[in-house]
Amino acid sequence: MDPSLVKIPPMKDLTIDNITENVHKINSQCPDPRLKYLMERLVSHVHDFARETRLSHDEWMSAILFLTAVGQICSDVRQEFILLSDIVGLSLLVDSIDHPKPPASTEGTVLGPFHTHDAHEEPNGAVVHHDPQGEPCLVLCTVKDTNGKPISGVKIDIWETDSNGLYDVQRADRKEPDGRAIMHSDDQGVFWFKAIKPVPYPIPHDGPVGKLLRLLKRHAYRPSHVHFMFDKPGYDHLITALYLRNDPYETSDAVFGVKESLLVDLQKVNKEQAQKYDVSAGTWLITYDFVLISEEESRNLREQKAMRAMESQGRRMKLYNGLPVPDVD
User: Fold this and answer.
1) In this structure, what DSSP letter does residue 268 have?
2) Of 115, 212, 209, 210, nearest in space to 157 by CA
3) Average pLDDT of the chain to the nearest whole number
4) pLDDT tens per residue, range 301-323
5) From the CB of residue 90, how many other CB atoms can be counted at a distance below 10 Å?
6) ∠ CA 69-72-78, rounded to 5°
7) 104-137 per-position pLDDT tens digit
8) Contact 127, 119 (CB under 8 A)
9) What own/partner pairs with CB < 8 Å and gap ≥ 24 does 272-279 have?
10) Is 112 helix (H, G, I), strand (E, B) or coil?
11) Sign of the CA dihedral running 140, 144, 147, 149
C-alpha cells in the first residue's frame, strides 16, 4: 500500500510498558472489525507472554527457527502445522468452539494431517482397504438427525491407516488412494464398508513437531481409530472419528482427540450379518449411529456460547458475521 495513503499515528520512545498500546494504535485503522479484534487480542497475549516469561532473545530465535522448520517440512501430503496445532490441543479447542454440539448429537474431533482430496467415490459395501496383512473389519453405520430421522445423501469421507499404522500418503510407492473412500448414506441413512481393524500408530515424529514431543517427554502415539467427515447442505459440517475402547493409548492420545462418546467396542460378525453383508462369520465388526445437527442449530448454539463467554469476561461485544467483535457504537 502506498504510504502516502495511510495515516500512521505518531510513535516514539517505545518501551516494554507502552509497545502493546502502540501496536494496537497502528493496527486500529483496519476496516475489518473481526480481523482488527483478532489482531488486538493476539498482540496482547503474545506481548503479555513475553513479559510474563521474560522471554530471552535466544528463546525467541529458537521459536522463529522452529516455526521455519515446521513450514519447510510441509508438503502436499504432509501438514506439519496441523500436527503442531494438534499436539498443543489447539485443533480440538477450535473445533469445539466453532462446532458446538447439543446433547445426543455426535461430537467432533481433530481432522489430523492425513486427509486428502483424491479419495474415490465408492458404493455401500465397498472394500475400503486392500492391505493383505490387515485383519478384515466390517463397519456398519447410520446417519440421523436429532429427531431420529434418517438422513439420506450425506457425503461421508472415510480414511484409516494400514496394519502397520501408516496412511497411504506416507508410502513412497503410493500410486492411488487406499484406506480411504467417499460414500453416501442411502435412503435409510445407512452406509457400510469393509475395512481393516484399526491399529494404534505414531504421528510423524521425524520432524520439528516430533523433536518438540521428545523435549517435552511425550510419546507420539494415537489410539486405534477410523476417521469420518460428514457433509450435506443444511447440516453442520462434522469431522469426527471412532476409537477402539481399551486401546493402550486411549487416555494419552498425542493429539487429544479421544472423547468418551466416540469410543466403540470391537465386536464380531454373527452368522446372520455374515450372510447379509457377504463377509465371514467372526470378522471384526464396528457399529455406530451418527447424529448430525442442522446448520441453524449449530449457528444458534455457537452464537449463544460466544456471547455468554464474552459476558463472563466482562466484554461489551456484538456479532459480526456470526463472530464476536467489540461493540463500540
Assistant:
1) E
2) 115
3) 95
4) 999 999 999 999 999 999 999 99
5) 14
6) 110
7) 999 999 998 899 999 999 999 999 999 999 999 9
8) no
9) 273/138, 273/140, 277/125, 277/138, 277/140, 277/192, 278/125, 279/136, 279/138, 279/194
10) coil
11) negative
